[in-house]
Design goal:
The structure holds two protein chains of two kinds.
Chain A lengths: L4 E3 L2 E4 L5 E6 L6 E7 L6 E7 L2 E4 L8 E4 L6 E5 L8 E8 L4 E3 L3 E5 L1
Parallel strand pairs in A: 2-11
Antiparallel strand pairs in A: 1-3, 3-8, 4-5, 4-9, 5-6, 7-8, 9-10, 9-11
Chain B lengths: L3 E4 L2 E5 L4 E7 L5 E7 L5 E6 L3 E5 L2 E6 L4 E6 L8 E8 L5 E3 L3 E6 L1
Parallel strand pairs in B: 2-11
Antiparallel strand pairs in B: 1-3, 3-8, 4-5, 4-9, 6-7, 7-8, 9-10, 9-11
Classes of the chains: A mainly beta, B mainly beta.
Chain lengths: 111, 108
Amino acid sequence: GAGVSQSPRYKVAKRGQDVALRCDPISGHVSLFWYQQALGQGPEFLTYFQNEAQLDKSGLPSDRFFAERPEGSVSTLKIQRTQQEDSAVYLCASSLSAEQYFGPGTRLTVT
Amino acid sequence: GIQVEQSPPDLILQEGANSTLRCNFSDSVNNLQWFHQNPWGQLINLFYIPSGTKQNGRLSATTVATERYSLLYISSSQTTDSGVYFCAVKDYGQNFVFGPGTRLSVLP
């Protein structure tokens, strides 16, 4: 079946703008994860959902970051008042049991 | 939290050569995955291997959980193997921690 999809693939935002990044997990996958990957580094955990419940948001860097998954499927990561340090690739992964499958990511550039 | 180290940080090979990539972790894990991040940024699953040995074509992996390390073997390397290889581990929570990666370049 289809893998994890993310949109948009690229986003350029001016500093101070709000952005919304979308993740469509693999159908039937209960768990959904968001990661942030800075240039030249490994992905870093942001937040985790099991169905619609956000069980861990310990990795969100500030209260400008907000994630939701209202119907337990599609998830949106929202960043308010973007800043230059938010520039990164945002990766979404989904999982049915233990193994995680990643989407292609959204590359966010804040100018 | 759990710490993950990978070595070497960079590796340059001639096509056809073999290589071993290492992942060390600081605590007990119940999940370990190896990924290949291709030049377009896509993370491709290679192995889910919390313990034991697995093989898939030219790639194989071994995790010795009691000694807190995992090895990824690449044989007869090809230029398409180039990219960054990540080890990621999870303790008994849900937080997945990635290592810093090994950047592999395979030259024709």
